Amino acid sequence: MDTSAALHAPAASLTRGRYTKEELQALHRKMGLAALRRRRIRTAVLITLNILMALFILFPLLYAVSVSLMPGEELFTMEMNLLPKHPDFGNYLRAWTQVPLVRFILNSFLVSGCITVGQIITCSLAAFAFSFLNFKGKNVLFMLVMATMMVPGEATIISNYLTVSSLGILDTYLVLILPSLTSAMGIFLFRQFYMTFPMSLYESAKLDGCSNLRFIVSILLPLTKSAIGAMSVYTFINAWNMYMWPLLVTGSQEMRTVQIGISMLDNTDAQSITLMMAGVVSVIIPSMIIFIVGQKQLIRGMFSGAVKG
């Protein structure tokens, strides 16, 4: 029986009994197998494209890992060595001993953690005011806060430096943390999430004698775990990757962060690139772990406030 002809046969001919029950069952099986084959081919093509795209995106990171394992004589040759012929894990040991990388990592963890907690506190408080409180000029003030997102950090770095210098807090943890304790992005994220809550929730809490601070701590924050998770991952990674501001306001190795510490591995000898790559890979690992662990919270928090209701 011709399958293609049967597929295009009119429905009326089927109802008149042109095909037997066994022939119809065989036809249905063939149609099911053909559909299954098409789905498998489409899935295989999509998986192959995803793998190729992932390799293309991850190639710089994979090559950095490869270079970090290369001896210096393998890197500086006329040959294009993508993989180390003789992996040298001693590059990591030398990178960790040549500079106090452990101290730099601890400094970055401390600074990034304090900035993350500070932004969650300040941004949630500001977002509460813009969402539930009524005061004159609220919309104008919110627009001004959002307008600061258009100002690049390089435009304010000199004025910030003069301010902290006049306060006498250079080369301290405070100068690394204080200028980043709030952000317009965090305020916007929390406000959009709070706007999904009905105003009756706040009014009922006020009628029960609940203060604003208690309403935030006991009601809002437990209901905004996805937004807090997204804010935590986003803020921590941004703080971990800070370079220009720590370079400007710190001068001693005790206060340096990891991004500054990696640049200290670069010197004139031929092995500096492999050591620097070993340091880069070591520094990337904590931020990658945090991103992988919190990626679901990050995606959920970014889209949770997109639809109101």
UniProtKB/TrEMBL annotation:
Sorted alphabetically, which Gene3D superfamilies does this protein's record hold?
MetI-like
Major subcellular site: membrane
Task: Give the InterPro entries listed for this entry.
Answer: MetI-like, MetI-like_sf
Q: Where in the cell is it found?
A: Cell membrane
Transmembrane regions = 44-65, 109-133, 140-161, 173-194, 215-237, 273-294
- Keywords, alphabetical: Cell membrane, Membrane, Transmembrane, Transmembrane helix, Transport
What Pfam families has UniProt attached to this entry? BPD_transp_1 (PF00528)
Q: Name one GO cellular component term.
A: plasma membrane
Task: Tell whether Cell membrane is among the UniProt keywords.
Answer: yes
Q: Does the keyword Transmembrane apply?
A: yes
Record-linked PROSITE patterns: ABC_TM1 (PS50928)
**Which residue numbers delimit the ABC transmembrane type-1 domain?**
105-294
* GO BP terms: transmembrane transport
Topology in the membrane? Multi-pass membrane protein
Q: Which family does it belong to?
A: Belongs to the binding-protein-dependent transport system permease family.
Q: Please report the name of this protein according to its UniProt entry.
A: ABC transporter, permease protein
Tell me what organism the protein belongs to: Subdoligranulum variabile DSM 15176
Phylogenetic classification of the source organism: Bacteria, Bacillati, Bacillota, Clostridia, Eubacteriales
